[in-house]
Amino acid sequence: MILLGPSGCGKSTLLRMVAGLEDPSVGDVFIGEQRVNDELPKLRDIAMVFQSYALYPHKTVRANIEFPLKVRGVPKAERAEQALHAAEILGLAEYMKRKPGQLSGGQRQRVALARAIVRKPAVFLMDEPLSNLDAKLRGDTRTELVDLHRRLDSTFIYVTHDQVEAMTMGSRVAVMNAGRLEQVGTPQEVYDRPASAFVAQFIGTPPMNVLPVGLLGTNDVQVGIRPEHLLLASEGRLSGNVYQVEHLGHEVLVHAESTAGRLVARVDPASDLPVVGDAVRFDAADHHLHRFDAHSGMRVS
Q: In what residue span(s) does the ABC transporter domain sit (predicted)?
């Protein structure tokens, strides 16, 4: 389950309520069939992975991974065996004698994951664990986490503001805004049928074009169009002037200023492309239009 939303929307607070580090003002927290509102964090059978790794700098990788088992009083030989198994899952076996300061950011993140895995918790809570990594390493670690989730068959609750992580990793996505849950669904459901204009503009790269009230609709409806559905058309219903053309190899993004505000269209690089300064027209098939109530922002049929 991915908790997705902008900074300050309540994602980490919700995660901390599940962990028992914050008390919910209303409602119940269940882990499995057990209500845990009054349980101490250490009794909730959860493991948390932080953005900052939170490793002990003076301990070796082995000692860091073993630490949760040591606290529980697990015998030394059993601790060593379980720590090695967790390290092998994440490709850390050769680094067991090193200290965190001798590791790269990606390796430290994997040590933090191994320390969580070794506990075999009912729930893994992950608070933006990849945000400190560079782009390539983030992509590689995303793949590792998806594979890890499949192998462990455990519940992961994963906080991020990165909608690419949400779309590629999530079984389900919960989109949050200003402390409220806007929509819950599979990544494809949230992308194809956003429940509100906020979700429509938060999910997708580039985000959905949302037109002013009255354009391509009635005066009580805003219309949204995904960039891949906004087509260059000589007789199109929307007009504008191109101010930027982004060549991304597999696709081209055409940005235009119009009476509808700024519009972005995703265009085939093999097509006849406009250049900066060109006057262009756009259109979209009616079945690709998304409609949102002008006042509430919620989706309407």
A: 2-203
